[in-house]
Amino acid sequence: MPDARSLLPLKPVEYLVLLALVEGEQHGYALAKEIDERTEGVVRLEPGNLYRVIRRLVDDGLVAPAARRAAPDADDERRRYYAITARGQRVAALEGERLRALLASRPARILARTLRPA
Amino acid sequence: MRRAWSERVFAALVRCYPREFRERYGVEMQEFYRDALRENGARAWMRAIPDALLGAARERAREAFSSRPERSEGPAVAVAVPHLSYTTTGDGMLQSILQDLSFATRIIRKNPLFTGVAVLVIALGTGAVSTIFSIANAVVLQPVPGVTHANELVNIERMHGDGSGSLSASYPYYEQLSQRSRSMSGIAAWSMVNITVSTGGEGVAGLGNIVSGNYFRVLDIKPFLGRFFSAEEGSVRGASPVVVLSHAFWLRRFGGDSGIVGKPVLVNGRSYTVIGVSPARFSGLYPMLRTDAFVPLMMQEHLRPGGRLDSQGSAWLELFGRLAPGTSREAAAKELAAVTKQVTEDPSTGTPSFMKDFTGAKVTRVSGLPSDAAGAVMGFFAVLLVLAGVVLLIASVNVASMLLARSVVRRREIAVRVALGAGRARLIRQLLTESTLLFVLGGGAGALLAEYGTRVLARIELPVDVPLVLDVSPDARVLGVTLFIALVTGIVFGLAPAMQGTRQDIATTLRASGAGAGQRRSRMRNALVIGQVAMSLLLLTVSGLFVRALDKGRKVEIGFDATNVAVAALDVSTSGYDSTRSSAFYGQLAERVSAIPGVTSVGFARVLPLSMNNMGTAISIPAYTPPGQAMGADFNVTNNLVDAGFFTATRLPMARGRALSADDRARSAPVAVVNEAFAKQYFPNADAVGQAIGYNGASVTIVGVARNAKNGKLNEDPEPFLYLPMWFDGRSATNILVRTAGDASVMGPAITRAMHEIDPILPPPTYTTLQKSISVALLPQRFAVAVTGALGILGLLLAAVGLYGVLSFSIMQRTREIGVRVALGALRMDVFRLVVGEGMTLVGIGIGIGLALSLGASQALRTFLFGVSPADPVALLGTVVLLAATALVACYIPARRAAGVEPIVALRQE
């Protein structure tokens, strides 16, 4: 397994998926919905794209499929849940660190000022 | 409703992903999609379907290059201009394809109106093609479902030595053939048989297949429950009352009772043991026909009372076989023809004289349709498919000219890119990716339209007395074909605009103001409009011809009166009646039904007139020499078995002599009625009434000559026809015809009541009217009118939109020029005339070419037209007027706009 650092930078959508899993396991649709809400509709994942991202994260060992169990919101169908792995937590934390450093840089701060109302 | 089909479309899309991905995530993706549908409805599929389509393409690409391009897809920030470099190594190539794709996606999203219109237009075209293809796919292209190695299965038909004619097989012929043939690993025989199944009490009328013992072995099918026929059940006569139920019948009648095997049921009044249930996907060799049960050939004496198993002359079986390993169809045909010749010419087989010519055999692929119907049906669908293809062509041309127009608008963007060093090939590829993506999106939407279109078409009521089951909804194959077509048209119709769009001189373009279209470009657009007009005229003419044919078919003199007659098929032998009991029953039934208020007469006929069925029988006439035979020899003539009431119930008038009468039966001398064509052909110089014909070893006297009537098809010429009394034949299958004073369609319950007063266990028949039943003769025309009408109107609208678009665009380009003209004193009327004249010139040329095309193409339709000429002036003139009027409207709007150009505004415009 390659070093966690070599996976940086994460794609924004990968980072979002990892963030959405930090507080607990989720099934695919709930995951997409949470990301939609968190980004206020800017990132909307459809099944085709979502599972391509999940596949990549699973292959890199950042996310692991959990057992199938009934979803609380949907009848009695059983869903596959996904959980963030320890490695995933580490990579996401490193990515957060990287972004923070980026945002703290001088040019980023100058740019941020341009958005503030005069 | 929508949920069901959009989920199926999505499931089909999931099948497009590489196997590995599909197996890991396919189920979950579908669950996701269901959730999204539940929450967001239509918005969910509008987003998810294109996404899944693109995802599948990317996954396929990833699989093909088996690298992991996603990680190195380039900067996450969107760039407006794709990389200008162009490499052909695997990874670089893939990368630039992906780049093109994502750039194209952005362009497509940025112009929602353009995209929407283009996708809609393409969807209409591909939707038309895939609707027709879905139906053709279900009807002719699907092999028999549920069978292993269906391509090894062949139909075997006996025919004339010269390859004409066609004859079912007799049982002795079947036995000879299976014993002597080496080219087949097995030959099986079957026939349809009416059955009544009950578990005590009122029975259910069903459609059975009576099959040889090896039927399921040759098909290589495993039972769903229990077992199929054993060697003994397939060879010992009358000893094995056993039945295999079809899966659908088992579900419907026995509620899927898994303990059914071993239980007794009453089949045609006798106790049969259920030994098995056939698998769900298999429903006999003609999957369009419902099959309820399979019974062994060895029980034919009970199931077909009066049928003669050992008679060479009794041809009633259909044969099919499985080719021996390594044998071709041609080799098998040769061998079977040789065996047939041997059998026919061997005097010990006792082949009757009228079969002596049937010394050949034909071997065709088993197709789910009777082989004589398959050819005609395929031809019919081929015509419709070509017409739908024309609609797609018109639609694609529209999109091509839209792309062409846009490439003018984008000239500056393209010039900038060229100036920055982009190669022309690279630019063409980029533009092609855009157009292909548009077409693929349109193809996806077209598949959805096809799903809807097939539903509408499947709802057309078929006035036939057989239970049809047909699943015409698009499957993965249809979806695949649609996407393939979309891909190819996208490339073909995107290429010309892309070539045109990138052919330019940078310096002039960058300097120029962006107005003014190149000579070449407008010439190309004009050619496109002319082509569209010509093709839509072709479509309209074809549909016009079918309308005329339908009209003519309705007015064909059928020779009898079909109004106010209720009809139903009856067969009491399936309730255990022997021939004496059944003829007594029909006599009683006629009496009771006649007593129902409103009934004026009751008759019976083995075959309903104009039901596209006919039967033949061998007769002889002492002084007549059939072609190629001895005087007085047997020959075949079409006939029907009727009773005295048939002539009054159908009001079939007599030309000479009398009709059959109820007391003919009691007379010792048998009698028959012939039609005028019969009398004219066989007794040209004498009065046919009083003449004798030989039938089944007896001499039958002709007592009357009926007027010619249509019997088989609407467009047939009068043919010799023989009406034999129904009591000549031991079998009891017949149709009751009840003429009423008022509406015949409400008579059913009263007739069933009369029947149940005689015997309450009889299954209630299904009623229709004679009028509905004969309308089946016009079915191909009605279907064609519906389909070609829809295609024609679609084509017309698309062509009108195309014309409108081209004129509007050229006026936009020429605003300045028009402004100058007006400033120099041109009247508004002149400008108006100029634009309309320009448009209508194109339309005129298009109409000319279209007329020539339609005259050629409609020759192919001759057989469907009931003698309406392919150059029918009404149809041609009508369509030209319709087209010209529509075109005029399409020209009017841009012309008005041009006439309204203010010179000052126009001249000030950049």
Total domains of chain B, how many? 5
Number of contiguous helices of chain A:
5
Q: Greatest contact pair?
A: A-B, 21 and 23 residues
Total tally of structural domains of chain A: 1
| Average pLDDT level of chain B | 82
Spatial sequence of strands, sheet with the most strands of chain B: 2-3-8-5-7-6
Written account of the structure:
- The complex is a heterodimer of chains A (118) and B (910).
- Chain A has 118 residues and is an alpha+beta fold.
- Chain A is 54% helix and 14% strand.
- Chain A contains five helices and three strands; from the N terminus they run αβααββαα.
- In chain A, a hairpin with a 7-residue loop joins β2 and β3.
- The model of chain A has no long low-confidence stretch (mean pLDDT 85).
- Chain B folds into five domains: 1-52; 67-142 and 375-511, no CATH class; 150-367, no CATH class; 519-556 and 778-908, no CATH class; 565-742, no CATH class.
- The relative contact order of chain B is 0.10.
- The model of chain B is unreliable at 67-90 and 513-517 (pLDDT under 50).
- The A-B interface holds A 11-12, 27-29, 32, 44, 46-52, 54-56, 74, 77, 79-80 and B 21, 24-25, 28-33, 35-36, 47-48, 51-56, 58-59, 70, 76.
Brief digest:
The complex is a heterodimer of chains A (118) and B (910). Chain A is of the alpha+beta class and 118 residues long.
Q: What is the element layout, followed by pairings?
A:
The complex is a heterodimer of chains A (118) and B (910).
Chain A: H1 12-22, E1 26-27, H2 28-38, H3 47-59, E2 63-70, E3 78-84, H4 86-104, H5 106-115
Antiparallel strand pairs in A: 1-3, 2-3
Helix pairs in contact in A: 1-2, 1-4
Chain B: H1 2-14, H2 19-40, H3 42-65, H4 90-110, H5 112-141, E1 153-159, H6 171-180, E2 184-198, E3 204-211, H7 215-219, E4 225-226, E5 242-245, H8 247-254, E6 264-267, E7 270-277, E8 293-296, H9 300-303, E9 318-323, H10 329-345, E10 360-365, H11 371-409, H12 411-419, H13 424-458, H14 476-502, H15 506-511, H16 519-555, E11 565-570, H17 579-594, E12 599-605, E13 615-620, E14 635-642, H18 644-649, E15 654-657, E16 671-675, H19 676-682, E17 692-695, E18 698-706, E19 721-725, E20 734-740, H20 748-758, E21 767-769, H21 770-774, H22 779-813, H23 815-823, H24 828-857, H25 873-899, H26 903-908
Parallel strand pairs in B: 3-8, 5-7, 14-19, 16-18
Antiparallel strand pairs in B: 1-9, 1-10, 2-3, 2-6, 2-9, 4-7, 5-8, 6-7, 11-20, 11-21, 12-20, 13-14, 13-17, 15-18, 16-19, 17-18
Helix pairs in contact in B: 1-2, 1-3, 2-3, 3-4, 4-13, 5-11, 5-13, 5-14, 6-10, 11-14, 11-16, 11-22, 13-14, 16-22, 16-24, 16-25, 17-20, 22-25, 24-25
